[in-house]
Structure formats: C-alpha cells, structure tokens
Amino acid sequence: MMEFMEGSHAVAHAVKYCRPEVIAAYPITPQTHIVEALADMVANCQLDAEYMTVESEFSALSACLGASAAGSRVYSATTSQGLALMFEVCFNCAGMRFPVVMSIVNRAMGAPLSIWNDQQDSISLRDSGWLQFYAEDNQEAADLHYLAYKVAEDKNVLLPAFVCFDGFILSHTYEPVDMLTQEQVDNYLPRYSPVQRLDSENPLSFGLFASPDYYMEFRYQIDQAMKGAAKNIASAGSEFGEMFGRDYGDMIESYRLEDADCALVAMGSICGTVKDAIDEMRKDGKKVGLMRLRTFRPFPGKEVRSALSNVSRVAILDKNISLGAKGAVALEVKDALYGTQVPVLDYIIALGGRDVRKKDIRAVVEMAEKGKGDLFYGLRQELLA
Amino acid sequence: MSGESCGLFEYGHRACGGCAAALAARTILDAAGKDTIVVSSTGCMEVFSTPYPETAWKVPWIHSLFENNSAVASGIVASLKKQGRKEKVIALGGDGATFDIGMLCISGAFERGHDFVYICYDNEAYMNTGIQRSGATPYDASTTTSPAGKCSSGNRRPKKDLPMILAAHGAPYVATASVAYLPDLKKKVEKALATEGPCYLQVHAPCCTGWGFEGEKTIAIGKLAIETGLWVNYEMEDGKVTRVKKVVRKPVETYLKEQRRFRHLFKPARNDAEIAKVQAVADRNAERFGIDIKLKK
Q1: How do the domains of chain B map onto residue ranges?
Q2: C-alpha dihedral over A149, A150, A153, A159, to 10 degrees?
Q3: Is A91's Cβ below 8 Å from some Cβ in B?
Q4: Which of A124, A291, A366, B279 is the most buried (most CB within 10 A)?
Q5: What's the angle, vertex CA B291, arms to CA B288 and CA B292, rounded to 5?
Q6: SS3 at position B84
Q7: Any chain B CB within 8 A of the CB of A72?
Q8: Pick among 3.30.70.120, 3.40.640.10, 3.40.50.920, 3.40.50.720: CATH of A252-384
C-alpha cells in the first residue's frame, strides 16, 4: 500500500515486518527516529521483540552478537561515530559468521564534528566482512532490509549486512513508499533458523583463537562467502521483483548508459539528482548516463566492467575519501576497469552534508570532458586562501 | 589423570601448572551444571582453554572480544528470554577485562538488570600479555608496567573496589571468594545463579607465573592473602555485607615475602616504611569488614 512516510519510519516498519527477536541500539543523530519508532511499537505490543537500551553502540552490537549466537534474528541501527565505536565488533560479527542486519544512516565522520550526510562511515568498514547495500530512496531503504536478512541468513552466506541510506536526505524526508504487509514479508522472508547456536543440548564453543596454522583459511572462507553472496543477492533480488514488482537482482543500476559517452558513478540518494541532471543534459544533446552501485560489498566488479567498458570516460562521485589516496568507489571502479582504456576521474563531493545541485553534476561532466578530475569538487577557495 | 573426565571443564588445556583460574573454571562449572552458557572475555583463560580446533568447555561457550563479555551475555539473556529457554548465563573475565576495559559494558548490563552472573577471576594484573598492571593490582606490587626500581616501590595505587561499585548498581548479590576455599566458592556460585538479576563474584586467583611463586603453592598463597587481611571473603546482599570470613590475622609480610612481585620490599634491603603501608591496607580491610577473631586472653 502506498503511504507517505518519513524514511526512518519506512525503515522501522520494514524492520518490524522482518520480525527481529532482539533489538539493541544506542541513540545517535540521524538514526534516532528509527529506534524511537521501534521502541514505540514494542511499547504498544505491535512488535514482539526484546528491546535493549544499551549504554553504547559498542554494547549494542555486542548484545546483537550474543543474541544472534543464542539463535535470534537481531537488529541494530547506527551511524558515523556510533559505527566507528562498533569497529571491533563489526569484524567480530563477520568473523564469527553472525547474520546481524544493521541500518546505517550515513553521516560524516569527525573531526570536525558533523551530523550531516556523506558515506565515510560505512565505507570505512568496507574491509570488515559486512555486506553493504546503498539505497537511492526511501522505497529502497525499506525494501533492502528484507533482502538483507534473506541474503545474510542464507547458510551459504552467514555474514552480517549494512543497509545504508543517507542521513537526513532520506532518513528525515517524506516520500511515497509502497509498504508491504506482514503477510507479504512472511511469504518472502522465512523465520530465522540458525545453523548453529549456543545450546546446552548441543554444547559448542564459539570464538576460539586461531594460530597461524589456521587463521588464513578462516579469512579465505569469509571472503568466499562474501563473493558467493552475489548469487544470493541475484536470486533473492529477482524473487523480490517477481513477488512485489521491484527487482533488486542486479547489484548495479544502469541509467541511460547504453549510448553514453560519459558515465557517472555514484551510490545513494545523490543518484536522484544525477538522473535529473542527466535528463537535462540529454535534452542538450550530451550523451551522459549513470551507473549506480546498489551493492558495494560484495563489489560487483564484473558487472561494473561490463557496464562501463564502452564509455569514453567515467566520472565517479565519491561521498567519501580514503585520505592520501582517492575515494573508495573510484579505487574499486578503476580496479574493475583495469586493462581497458577507459579513463576514470574521481570527484570527492558532498562531504559533511554539502548540497549537490543539478548544476554541480553538469559541472562535473564538463570537467570530465576536459580530462580534469581526481579532485575535491566545490571547495570554497576563499576559506583556503 | 588417566583419561578420566574431570567434569564440564575438561583437562588437557594449556594453563600453567598450578593455575588458579583453571581451578576456578572447573569449580564454577561443577556448581553451575550443564545448562549453563559461558561467555569468556579475551585473556589467559580463553587462550589456554580454546586453541582452535580444541576446547576444554563441555558447556556452550562463546568468546567475542576482550571488553564485551557482559554485553554479549546480556544479548544472550535477552534472546533466551524471547525463546523461553531456561539456561543460566555466566560471563567470565580476568581482572583486566573486568576492572578496566570492560567496565562500561558491565555497568550497562548491571544497570539494565539482566539475569546473569559475572565472575571475575582476579589474578591482579594483565597476565596473558605478560604481567602488566591493572586496576586490580594491589599496592606496591611490581609488574612489568609498574616495576619496582630505584625511585619506585611498584604499583602506586590500591585495588579498585569493584564489588562495592557493582553493589551500588543495585546488584542483589555480590560476593568475593578464593580458590583457596573451593567449597565456599562453589556455594557462592550456586547462590549467585539462584538469585534473580545481575550478580557479581570476584574470585582471588593467585598466579604463580605472574606473582612469582612455585605452582604447588597456589592454595597456600591464597590462604595467606585471607589470613593477612589483604583479601577478604565476604557476601553482600542488596547492598549490605551479610557474611564475612573471620581470621586470626597474620602480619602482611608472611604473604608478601613468598612472592617475587613484592621481593623489592625485602631485598636488597628491608623497606619497613612500605611494608607498613601494605599493613595499613590490611588493617583498613580488617576494620571495615570486622574480620578479626578476638582471641581470649
């Protein structure tokens, strides 16, 4: 049913329909509306879950890890500094193969302190073994939670997942969202049945230490599971499309890319603005298209290569910066295009909530056409003088 | 040991000979029984009991990180509650995990009131990493990060009073115990598990490697700690001290001189001023808990 909803509330309702048994979270802007909505549902018997108000994000994810080990479907949500505080537990969840699903309401990392949006937080956890999905709009922000649980909990995957969506730009913005019903979600997402759990009837030890004789094989298996998750995303995404009409089987979305000279590459809510700018530029006769990454981990290298190998140039819009190198998306795309002659130019953009307008997208394309790139876009030179 | 099982904490682990922590683990599981989930923090016990692919634990056991065992335990308790399962949950950590790095998680879990027991095996320093000072290291103990030297007499601070801190959280049952008195330890584990809400047990676990004594003396050293008043075995119920082990006190030097970590108090020259300060710690304990048995004249 189509409803006019704030992004956070759309996500909270989607999470409710996933029937998490244990929720542990710590308040942080701009994640709060999600966990407040879930607390309200629990308080009013609309959601039958153990809701844990923990004393830090570190404990939030640790509690989720414990509850997952005991056999429950779990949920948490955080952003920015909170995610950074979870860093150690993130690696642990993935290494111990607990399919925790967590919403990341993307926000910049301090210092300087900023509550506003970019994607530095989740990108900084790219090596931790979590699946990473990025939503363009509130519809996807809600839907990707169903997909995330389904993929993460598959016995061939058993990895935790981030569902990332841009802070304020999506989380605090009202949009029409087609919400599924509980029955529809139940038909798509089966009840969680853990492969192994802490159980006195079958006592197992979890989290042993590995000597150099064993450690690498564990890491290899995690990497294999992550790469293999691509298949699960394809099948679970297509199944979602068949059931509800929105197909998430592809890890990338191509927009007006078939005949494009210049391909923009981006993730998240910026893609709406990019698409509008592309439509305008097309009217002016500029052959511009967009490749949107919906999945960043596993990275869809083959799909990216096939989508971009025929364009004349690629312009990446990176809402993050690997300081001292480039934006993380540019690094991945360059790797995917290695051996082709396609030039890849990187634009660090919209950090800390700086607004991006259609004219900025046009300006990026014009720079790319001149071969000018690998820069921070839109710096206020008067502040740097 | 001739291939016969020694209970739920199996032999064959890699603890030092004379390890008090291993003895504590065995006793704790004897008391707790098989329907118990144990959450260990990183530390000696975790390392010597679970080198992949081996484990000494015959109950469901999990280790996540150094500082989060109580947060993980609280998640397990929440999950069990939701599932209607009845297993008991014990979080086990050394003094570094408990007094220092895990303090925030413990405080949170106790404040939330989860039904679990936190047990600290207190060997009074970071032993797994090589005998560094922790918040549980006693006054004047020489460790690798509080070494005694020409201008230092070892650790400069007294032990943090963690039982009191957790009692102040409203914990219904808080107790101290020692591997020197195993039946008492067992009884306290049983009592803690039978008490609803978050309970705390702090077990004195003399470490032959870290403290510097022969492995066969673990129990004797533990007894001396109590007999000198440097360790007090007591129980607190709803914030009030309800039971205390009383002793005919010996001077602290009978305990100190047995251990390498206090050797600087006696060699190269006897340091009466510092020994008196340690004695004062014991005297304060004796007064606070009323441990002295008054001998009839």
Answers
A1: 20-289
A2: -70
A3: no
A4: A291
A5: 115
A6: coil
A7: yes
A8: 3.40.50.920
Which chain A residues are within 8 Å of B111, Cβ to Cβ?
55
Q: Whose structure tokens read 């397990």? A: B76
Comparing CB atoms, the residue among B36, B63, B75 nearest residue A64 is B75
Contact A96 B64 (CB under 8 A): yes
Dump pLDDT digits (tens) for B237-251. 999 999 999 999 999
CA separation for the pair A168, A170 (Å, rounded): 5
Residues 18 through 77 of chain B touching chain A, CB cutoff 8 Å = 34-37, 39, 46-47, 50-55, 57-65, 67-68, 71-76
A-contacting residues in B 175-194 (Cβ below 8 Å): none
Contacts of B87 in chain A (CB under 8 A): 198, 200
Entry pTM: 0.97
CA–CA distance, B201 with B287 (Å, rounded to integer) = 22
Place of tokens 């999600």: A34
Tens-place pLDDT, residues B68-97: 999 999 999 999 999 999 999 999 999 999
Domains A2-244 and A252-384 share a fold: yes
Q: Which CATH number fits domain A2-244: 3.40.50.970, 3.10.129.10, 3.40.50.1220, 2.60.40.2310?
A: 3.40.50.970
Q: Answer whether B115 touches A (CB < 8 Å).
A: no
Taking contacts as CB-CB distances below 8 angstroms, the residues of chain A near B79 are 21-22, 50, 66-68, 70-72, 74
Q: For chain B, say whether A49 makes contact (Cβ under 8 Å).
A: yes
Cα(A241)–Cα(A22) distance, rounded to whole angstroms?
28
Superfamily of domain B20-289: Thiamin diphosphate (ThDP)-binding fold, Pyr/PP domains (3.40.50.970)
Q: Is A379 on the interface with B (CB under 8 A)?
A: no
User: Phi and psi at residue A378, in whole multiples of 5°?
Assistant: 80, 30
- For chain A, the domains span 2-244, 252-384
Nearest Cα residue to B68 out of B110, B100, B97: B97
* ipTM passes above 0.90: yes
